[in-house]
Write a structure and sequence with these properties.
Elements lengths: L12 H12 L11 H6 L6 H13 L6 H8 L6 H5 L6 H15 L4 H13 L3 H14 L9 H9 L14 E3 L7 E6 L3 H5 L2 H12 L2 E5 L8 H4 L4 H20 L5 E4 L2 H7 L2 H4 L6 H10 E3 H6 L11 E4 L3 H6 L5 H8 L3 E3 L14 H4 L1 H16 L5 E4 L2 H8 L6 E3 H8 L14
Parallel strand pairs: 2-3, 2-4, 4-5, 6-7, 6-8, 8-9
Antiparallel strand pairs: 1-3
Helix pairs in contact: 1-6, 3-6, 8-9, 11-23, 13-16
Length: 430
């Protein structure tokens, strides 16, 4: 694609990167075949190719974003399926992230939109605030029909039936390996996950310790920054990400780390991109060091000598977009589950998003709902006893529309290697 940015515009690192990405696009349209919003809406401007044209026009002309452009960019899930499909290597993620930052800085949204986004940015990355909000949502849910805005109703519907008690395993501390230490790793405990499902971190710590890993929960680490980053709130995202970088580098330079383990794939995609996010800052070197040793939990477990003995159960594996498209991890989760003795099945159109996508299911509930229905139908069609996924957002989204129990992949692997049965499977006959 030909671009016409001025030399002055290209002095901005984000614009310079956008220019590189735009020039790689050859308009082939392969991305439209795997774009969830294009599949649902059938609008070229709701495809990656259409959005690329909109972003090019906006950025190249330094134009104040118009409502039409903002609408179609807001509708993007950032599922990154287009990056898996693209034969030209167009790095759509960096382009749309820059466009969102540009929109946030130059577009005045309607008042309710601004309030909703401000509220989400002030609540979701903070576990205790999020817990309080979930409790309030449970109380307000019986009155949801009286609320005219679909996004507010979606926020009320998000509250789970039960809010788990705080797990002290999420506090800053060091868990020694059970037996000889083979590795020293930091566990990213996250933010929303600590309010929604404490079983995931607990299972991760157990299985790592049992297989010779000393597990560090670093003081000062918390939200990865993804939730605010994808809303274009770059300063807020970088502030939380910087705290993680400093916390983990202190461990790297102290007793050392072999890996930073992440069990929420949406966070993993962002942490692995810290090197790019901080490339022009004083934290560039440290951010690159962190990104270099960040691993999804299944990447690390694939390198350990697991000796599982699982019950014979049929598991439908849901591939989170951030894992299969963002991190290109497609085989480890399924291979580990199969090695554990589970029968693993996959749904039709496994490459398509479930509609969760961070805050997407709250800000775009209608499109998200259509994608959720589609995903749940394809998962249920495999006739599973359990659904497994590697991302808390997907688990909440899918679990809200099916009676089939859904658990994190690491919970099943922990169970299969000597850990307790996942609480979500308490009523499952084995």
């Amino acid at each position: 694609m030909q671009t016409n940015f001025t030399d002055a515009q290209l002095q901005d690192p984000g614009t310079a990167r956008a220019n590189e990405i735009l020039r790689a696009c050859v308009h082939c349209g392969f991305c439209t075949a795997t774009c969830p919003t294009y599949q649902v809406l059938g609008d070229e401007l709701d495809s990656p190719r259409g959005r690329i044209y909109l972003m090019k026009d906006m950025l190249e002309n330094s134009r104040v974003p118009d409502p039409k452009t903002v609408k179609h960019i807001d509708r993007c899930l950032s599922c990154l399926a287009c990056m898996t499909t693209c034969p030209s290597g167009v790095h759509y993620m960096h382009l749309v992230d820059h466009a969102r930052t540009y929109i946030e800085a130059n577009y005045k949204r309607p008042l309710l939109d601004r309030l909703l986004r401000w509220t989400l940015a002030r609540i979701l990355p903070y576990p205790y605030r999020f817990r309080a909000a979930l409790a309030g949502a449970k109380l307000a849910r019986p009155f949801a029909r009286l609320i005219p805005d679909a996004r507010l109703r979606a926020m009320l519907a998000m509250a789970p039936k039960t809010i788990p008690p705080v797990s002290r395993n999420d506090d800053a501390q060091v868990f020694p390996a059970a037996g000889p230490r083979k590795a020293r790793v930091a566990l990213m405990t996250g933010c929303a996950q600590k309010a929604l499902n404490t079983d995931i971190n607990d299972a991760t710590i157990r299985i790592l310790r049992r297989h010779g890993c000393e597990v560090v929960v670093a003081r000062g680490a918390g939200c990865c920054g993804a939730l605010t980053h994808h809303m274009g709130k770059t300063d807020e995202a970088h502030a939380t990400a910087a705290r993680n970088i400093l916390a983990w580098v202190a461990e790297i330079d102290g007793e050392g780390l072999d890996a930073i383990v992440i069990n929420t794939s949406g966070c993993g995609t962002t942490v692995k991109d810290y090197g790019h996010m901080f490339r022009t800052t004083d934290l560039a070197d440290d951010a690159a060091r962190v990104s270099a040793i960040a691993q999804d939990i299944t990447e690390l477990l694939a390198g350990l000598d697991l000796q599982p003995r699982a019950p014979t159960l049929r598991v439908a594996y849901h591939a989170a977009c951030s894992l299969q498209h963002g991190q290109k991890i497609t085989t480890h989760p399924k291979a580990l589950l199969k090695k554990a003795g589970f029968t693993v099945v996959e749904p039709r159109d496994a490459h398509l998003c479930c509609g969760s996508a961070g805050t997407y299911n709250l800000l775009q509930p209608e499109i998200s709902g259509q994608l959720k229905t589609r995903k749940v139908e394809t998962l249920q069609a495999t006739d599973p006893q359990i659904i497994a996924a590697g991302n808390i957002g997907c688990m909440m989204q899918i679990g809200s529309a099916t009676e089939i129990p859904i658990v994190h992949t690491v919970e099943l692997l922990d169970w299969a290697t000597g850990g307790p049965r996942p609480p979500a499977l308490a009523d499952l006959a084995t």
